[in-house]
Amino acid sequence: MDSIASKIVVCMGNNMITLQDALKKGKKNLIENKIENGEHDAWLLLAFQFKISKAVYLAEPLKEISQEACDAYLSLIEKRSRHIPLQYITGEQEFMGLDFLVREGVLIPRQDTEILVMEALKVSKGKEVLDICTGSGCILLSLMKLGGIKQGTGADISEKALETARENAKRLEVTAEFCKSDIYSHINKKYDIIISNPPYIPTGIIPTLMEEVKDYEPVIALDGKEDGLYFYREICKGLQEFLNTGGYVFFEIGYDQGEAVKELLLKAGMDNIKIIKDLAGLDRVVTGRWNEKKGEPFT
C-alpha cells in the first residue's frame, strides 16, 4: 500500500513499543505533513487514545503499549496528517470549561467565542435568551449552565447542528429548546437577550482559509455572503420585533467589522453600543441595548 496510513500504522513489528516511541512517531508525521501545532496535536491525540494526563505520561514515558494500541493511535495521527481538525477526530472540544460534543458538519467552538459568552454572562441571570445560529449550542448551553438564565432557545437552519446541540444539552444536563429556523422564521416570542455568532467571513475570503477550516468545517456556518455582514443585517431587521424593551443584543464579529456592525445596531434603535476587543487587541464582540424610544423602522 502506498497510502500515508500504510507508512505510519506500523510500530515495531512484533516488538513492544513505549508511549514515548509512539509519541515520537506521531510528532514526526505531523511535522512532516506541515500540521500547525503538530507536536501539540500529537500529544493531545496520545492523551485521547490512552486516556492519560501529562502528569501520568511524564511519570511513565517508557510504559509499554501493545501493537494494537499503537496502531490505533497512529491511525488518529494519519487522519490529522490530512488536515482533518483535531476536534472532529476526538469528537470533543472544551469551551467555557465545559466539554462539548462536536462532529463534522457542525462548527467547532472557538476560544475567541468565550469572550462573547463572558460579556453576556454579566447580564444573563434570570433572562430569556435566543441564540441565533446556535451550531453546537456552546453559547446558549454555557449561558444556561453558568449564567442562571431563565429560559433559552437555540435556532439554526442545520438539522445536524440542532441534533448536536440537543445531545450537548443532555450531556450537560441542561433543559433548552432548539428549533429549526432561518433566523426568525420560526421564532414567535420576545426575548431579553438575542445573541449570535453568525457566519461572518466574506465569500471571497473562504478559499484563503487554512485547510482545516475551508475543507472540513461547514461553509454554511462560515459564509457571511459578499461583505460578511449579511446575517447581521438580517438579525438587526428583527431586533425591534423579537427583543424586549431594555433587552440586550450580543454579536461576535470579524476583526474588521466592529464599526459596520455598530452602525447596523444604531440603525436598529440600539443604544449603549460597545465594541469589545479580544486578547489580541482585535474587535471581537459588539453589544447593544434596545431603547424603544430611539428606535426607527429598520429597512
Automatic annotation (TrEMBL):
Chain residues that bind substrate: 197-200
Keywords for the protein's UniProt record, in alphabetical order: Coiled coil, Methyltransferase, S-adenosyl-L-methionine, Transferase
GO biological process terms, semicolon-separated: methylation
Residues binding S-adenosyl-L-methionine, per UniProt: 156, 197
Catalytic reactions on record: L-glutaminyl-[peptide chain release factor] + S-adenosyl-L-methionine = N(5)-methyl-L-glutaminyl-[peptide chain release factor] + S-adenosyl-L-homocysteine + H(+)
Any one Gene Ontology molecular-function term assigned to this protein's record: peptide chain release factor N(5)-glutamine methyltransferase activity
Family matches, as InterPro entries: DNA_methylase_N6_adenine_CS (IPR002052), HemK-like (IPR004556), N5-glutamine_MTase (IPR050320), PrmC_N (IPR040758), RF_methyltr_PrmC (IPR019874), SAM-dependent_MTases_sf (IPR029063), Small_mtfrase_dom (IPR007848)
Domain of life, source organism: Bacteria
Boundaries of every Methyltransferase small domain copy: 116-200
Top EC class for this record: transferase
The enzyme's E.C. designation: 2.1.1.297
One Pfam family hit: MTS
Matching PROSITE patterns: N6_MTASE
Coiled-coil portions: 155-182
Domain Release factor glutamine methyltransferase N-terminal span(s) in chain numbering: 21-91
Function: Methylates the class 1 translation termination release factors RF1/PrfA and RF2/PrfB on the glutamine residue of the universally conserved GGQ motif.
Family from the record: Belongs to the protein N5-glutamine methyltransferase family. PrmC subfamily.
Protein name (Swiss-Prot/TrEMBL): Release factor glutamine methyltransferase
The organism of origin for this protein: Anaerocolumna jejuensis DSM 15929
